[in-house]
Amino acid sequence: MFPVEFKPGIYWVGSMDWSMRNFHGYSTERGSSYNAYLIMDEKITLIDTVKAPFCMEMLGRIRNIVDPAKIDYIVSNHVEPDHSGGIPFMMQQCPNAKIVTSDPNGLKGLTGRYGERDYIAVKAGDTLSLGQRTLTFVPTPMLHWPDSMVTYCPEEELLFSNDAFGQHLASVGRFEDDNDLSEVMHQAKKYYANILMLFGPQAQKAITALSELKISMIATGHGVSWRSHIPEIIQAYKDWSSFKKTDKAVVVFDTMWHTTEIMAKNVADAFQKAGISPRLFDLRCDHISDVMTELLDAKYIAVGSPTINNQMMPTVAGFFCYMKGLAPKGLKGFAFGSYGWGGQSIPQVEEALKDCKVEIALDQQKIQNTVNPPFLKKLQQNVVNMVSSQK
Ligand code: FEO
After folding, report:
1. How does pLDDT run across 315-368, given as a tens digit for each residue?
2. Which terminus of the chain, N or C, has less C-beta within 10 A?
3. Distance, CA 77 to ligand 1 centroid (Å)?
């Protein structure tokens, strides 16, 4: 297990989770990494740890540089166990280290999880001298936990950003320019949409605070770090946190006997006809976290469900539960679907859209039994008219 030198004397000593495919309901098809960093200075400092089962990998990397017993500080930017889970293990390796955490929420969270330790609680602007280098701390509360903070080293122009700017992406190339940039940006967007979307105002506040810092490298808590495209990822965060829209529609559906599926395809065609790029998601095979990634910058959403046992399909209900929690903003849309007799699912979908703060821009589009050409023509025209009326 080798460390990766990020700057002279500063090393990535994290761990790679190639196998993770689900993070709290978010599909992670590229795995992830838990990034920890070792700063070799007069005071040897570890920035964050890793998820508990991965501690031996981190330890192996550290041992390639220094005897872990010599570590003086562990900076814990975030209490969530994918970053702090290694603290008890590391405290056995370096029992004299002090743990630096945010005041008061990091202190409360770490004490609650790991008991009384030798903590140093820091507030905005507090500094810690390591010898040749200094660390300063910037709280980023609710980005995405109350305790979250980032750590900045001015001498190195290096930001340890923890969850912010990260991705669930396992890769031996530790920087964005070692990887396919479009894949890194996609995974960064997916991470933002599924972890941080709810906290747009807090993200904007954090970006404002960070804009005062000179940053030549962002060392993230997950995935790859940034050194060649820092303005691009910061601009992306500005766009995502303000829900900047593109001409895009997201069409989501489940189906029983393919009628709602045919409607979904016609809805997508109609959006395309109206100059709005459609993305079609079939909940029988697509993951709700991929839907959220596309919803982040979409203008429209259309959701379809047939009626089953007087309800919408459970997949559609689960999607709405997830969407409501992440609270995308500025969407317009409508409900559609087919039914055999009662047809309760379509008004239920419309209510669920309203509950997710979607502006209803078109009446419910529904058909009993199965579709026919005149119905599909009218459906397409209704969608085209809706888009025209919104311009
Ligand atoms: Fe990567 Fe919020 O923990």
Report:
1. 999 999 999 999 999 999 999 999 999 999 999 999 999 999 999 999 999 999
2. C
3. 10
Domains contained in the chain, CATH given: 4-241 (3.60.15.10), 248-383 (3.40.50.360)
> Which of 41, 57, 72, 144 is an active site residue?
144
Atom of ligand 1 nearest to the CA of 162: 1
pLDDT for 228 equals 98
Mean pLDDT of 107-124: 97
Distance CA 46, CA 64 (A): 14
**Which is the closest atom of ligand 1 to the Cα of 34?**
1
Q: CA gyration radius for the chain?
A: 24
Please say whether the beta carbons of 299 and 276 come within 8 A.
yes
The reported pTM is 0.97
Please work out whether the CB of residue 190 comes within 6 Å of at least one atom of ligand 1. no
Q: Mark whether 254 is an active-site residue.
A: no
